[in-house]
Amino acid sequence: MAQVPFLAEGGPEPSATLIDFIGEHAADPLATVPATTRTPDGVGLLFHDDAHHFFTSVAAERAPAWRDELLIAGFLEVVGWRPIDDVTKSNVPLLVIAATDDKLTPPGPLLNLDPRPALLEVVEVPGNHFGVYTDGFSVSSGAAIRFFRRHLGK
């Protein structure tokens, strides 16, 4: 089970400011970049769906040690990977909970996947990327619980 802030085409493009920042710091293996930003042209990987507000408010409430940063080297290792390209290779049950108005991980490529792998289950939840943790939590968590019970036993 994973939370993936991108899936395929249609996701947000990085700002020029972010690209410049990463370029300036990429040689340092310990350099970090903010995970979120308040503005679309800011230095941070996630802006859409009010990512900065979500992460900072959740951190304040539940994870005070969380730091708004990611290793640039780690980001650069996966920047070209498109998880949707590997969905058809899976030979294990896979549940994807797709937020219908998600701007960080637009659900279109997944919902339009044809043919859809037999072991892939998709549950759509209204709202944006973070709605599965807030207003849509009962739907998303219920789907996950049923999925795990079905595939891992009671």
- Strand share of the residues? 5-15%
The main sheet comes to: 2 strands, antiparallel
Given the structure, what is the number of helices? 6
Overall 3D form: globular
Measured on Cα atoms, how large is the radius of gyration?
17 Å
SSE pattern: HEHEHHEHEH
**Backbone structural class:** alpha+beta
**Percent helix:** 25-40%
Number of strands: 4
The unreliable regions are: none
Sheet with most strands: strand arrangement = 1-2
The structural domain count equals 2
- Mean pLDDT rating: 88
Distance between the termini: 18 Å
Describe the fold and architecture.
The structure is a single chain. By secondary structure, the chain is α+β, with helices and mostly antiparallel strands. It has 2 domains: 12-81, no CATH class; 82-154, no CATH class. It contains 6 helices and 4 strands; from the N terminus they run αβαβααβαβα. The strands form 2 sheets. A two-stranded antiparallel sheet has the order 1-2. Strands 3-4 form a two-stranded parallel sheet. It starts with 15 loop residues before the first helix and ends with a helix. 17% of the residues are buried. The mean pLDDT is 88.
Give a nutshell description of this structure.
By secondary structure, the chain is of the alpha+beta class.
Sequence-ordered SSE layout with sheet pairings:
Elements: H1 16-25, E1 32-33, H2 51-62, E2 70-71, H3 72-78, H4 84-87, E3 94-99, H5 108-111, E4 120-125, H6 137-152
Parallel strand pairs: 3-4
Antiparallel strand pairs: 1-2
